Amino acid sequence: MRSDFLVIGGGVIGLNIARKLRHRFPDASVHLLEKEAECGLHASGRNSGVLHAGFYYSPDSLKAKFTWQGNCLLTEYCEDKKIPLNKCGKLVVAKNHVDHAGLDELLRRGRANGIPLEELSEKDAKVIEPRVKTCERALFSPATSTVDPSKVMQAMKKDAVNEGVQLHCGVRYLSASHGRVVTSQGAYDVGYVVNAAGLYADRIARDYGFSEHYRILPFKGLYLYSSEPVGSIRTNIYPVPDLKHPFLGVHFTVAANGKAKIGPTAIPGLWREHYGGMANFRWNEFLEVAIRGVGLLANSNFDFKTLAVREAAKYSRSKMISLAGQLAEGVKPEHYQHWGRPGIRAQLVDIKKRKLEMDFVLEGDRHSMHVLNAVSPAFTCSIPFSEYVCQRIQAIL
Prior knowledge:
The protein has helices at 12-24, 43-46, 62-80, 99-112, 122-128, 149-162, 201-207, 283-298, 304-312, 317-324, 378-396; strands at 2-8, 30-34, 50-51, 85-86, 90-93, 118-121, 137-141, 145-147, 166-169, 173-177, 180-183, 186-195, 214-221, 224-225, 236-239, 251-254, 260-263, 267-268, 338-339, 343-350, 355-356, 361-364, 368-373. By secondary structure, it is of the alpha+beta class. The strands form five sheets. Strands 1, 2, 9, 10, 11, 12, 22 and 23 form an eight-stranded mixed beta sheet that branches.
């Protein structure tokens, strides 16, 4: 088989890159490989569904560049496709006076990134969400909304097919050499490869001489779902995050259907697709992740030990409820009995510097491009970020 462009990975980034390549190179053939039976069964279909506004990220980052733009474009896309959006906004609250400095930094970043943000008193915050807890001040992001990510993925897959992308689901990448990609369904002679394989992006990149100093470290995200009626929590409620880490802490998310959930965890996974039990277990991955974890416990610049211990404690339902109870009144254990479907964050680690990569990471040349780090808010950023990837490819070719 022959393909001018071969995209590996049918998540939200892979689908949009394939679509953008079809637009930029209308005479070229674009094939997409997805190892699962359907697109978006991993992070793209298991994420929180939040369309972030982009005020967490430093102005010089790719995340800052694409989040607000992505929010606007994905909102427009959902409205055009009649995909329900919950435009409930987001409150960021302070647990104490120490958090006020964090609110100030978020406000500074938001203004630098051109994001609409409102400074609120505690009284004003309670008008938006009567149950909210905050110390004197809060921030409100009116542009934050939520959507069902699986519905977005279904629409984007349909668009990709209609636009001429040739999808091959249930086809697994195996190896590559000298312009040929070997798959579980045969070999492709390929003009250009785009690797958007998420949890396996670093492995595929190494077949092409990239990801030398990078490895994927999986983190499992779990939510507890509320049994309270729709509207019991009106808006997303987040704590002030530790901006040295890519995780935002336990918070309330109001889904597209109006129901609330609390989470997520960021528990280190024991293998790449460690969703639960022994499913998808692979000895080589277990050993690799274990060795990497031990190394980070011994020496890392982000205190991996504290992170691992703190996140592992969130396996306890009472711990999750306790953390959520710092953000809102009336958080009762009997309302949070059901754990949702877990997701895995494909977090990139610089093994040379022993640090978590906070921004998107791309590596490539005239033969291939590798999306090594596309974690949250990649779902929000997917449309403009994919355009950026294609711009990079076109500039090289």
